[in-house]
Amino acid sequence: MNPQIEFPTTREMPTTRTADTSSPQLRVLVADSAPMHSALLAHALHQDGQVVAATACSPQELIEAAESGLFRVVVMSAEFHEDTLQTLRLLRRVRKIDANLALVVLLNVLDRELIVKLFQAGAQGIFLRSDCASQLARCIQCVSRGEIWVGSPELNILVDALSEQPSQTAKMQAISSLSPREEEVALLVAEGLSNREISDRLQLSEHTIKNYLFRMFEKLGVNTRVELALYSLEQRAANPLPPPS
């Protein structure tokens, strides 16, 4: 007989913040209402060697894990709750519990309306289940650094959808307009670049980039890179670049 493989659960993870900081591996929580799906995905992530994954199969387990402070990234199924509205509320609640917890949502299919709502609820990454596991590992590493993960199809969906919602853009413009340099930084944030990558691109120090971000957050009344990216995408949708001559 083949030996039984046991997958970690949130109850098997260390229960103190001290234990978390002693490990160089990235701690990831896989949240899916189907125990088999979450266990298989957690096992696949373990093969990366840089990730320690645990599972949560109910809203209560997810909330308890978020409150524990042990995890850096949550990979959550968009179908975690049969009611999409409840899933969005759960995302917002997790974001409120720990603003530093990066959220990635798994989608079965591209859903334009849902993708926009997921980012508005606090997701930092959208990942299609049809994509390969190695890409998911890259996605997890990306959002753990505070960056945004979005593929070209999802980005196009966001731009198209936001072009039909000018009211939010007008609201942000009423608060304060950004300088050309700030708009440039915001656009690079929307492309998923880290502070270091933006500083390299613009030939500015990381400290300068952080100052730009701080001022933009204050001007626009936003708190996260995701909200800033949504603003930039709205601007792009409202003011598309002219076609090349």
Brief overview:
This protein has 245 residues and is an alpha/beta fold. It is 53% helix and 11% strand. It has helices spanning 17-21, 35-46, 59-68, 84-97, 112-120, 133-144, 152-162, 166-175, 180-190, 195-202, 206-220, 225-238; strands at residues 26-31, 51-56, 73-77, 102-107, 125-128.
Topology:
Layout: H1 17-21, E1 26-31, H2 35-46, E2 51-56, H3 59-68, E3 73-77, H4 84-97, E4 102-107, H5 112-120, E5 125-128, H6 133-144, H7 152-162, H8 166-175, H9 180-190, H10 195-202, H11 206-220, H12 225-238
Parallel strand pairs: 1-2, 1-3, 3-4, 4-5
Helix pairs in contact: 3-4, 5-7, 7-12, 8-12, 9-12, 10-11
Number of domains: 2
By helix and strand content, what is the structural category? alpha/beta
Helix content: 40-55%
Largest sheet: 5 strands, parallel
* Series of H and E elements: HEHEHEHEHEHHHHHHH
| Strand residue percentage | 5-15%
| Strand adjacency order, main sheet | 2-1-3-4-5
The number of strands is 5
How many angstroms does the end-to-end distance come to?
A: 68 Å
What's the CATH C level of the largest domain?
A: Alpha Beta
**Bulk shape:** globular
Could you report the average pLDDT, rounded to the nearest whole number? 77
Uncertain segments: 1-22
CATH homologous superfamily label of the largest domain: Response regulator
The CATH topology of the largest domain turns out to be Rossmann fold
- Radius of gyration, taken over Cα atoms and rounded to an integer in Å: 19 Å
Q: How many individual helices?
A: 12
* CATH architecture designation of the largest domain: 3-Layer(aba) Sandwich
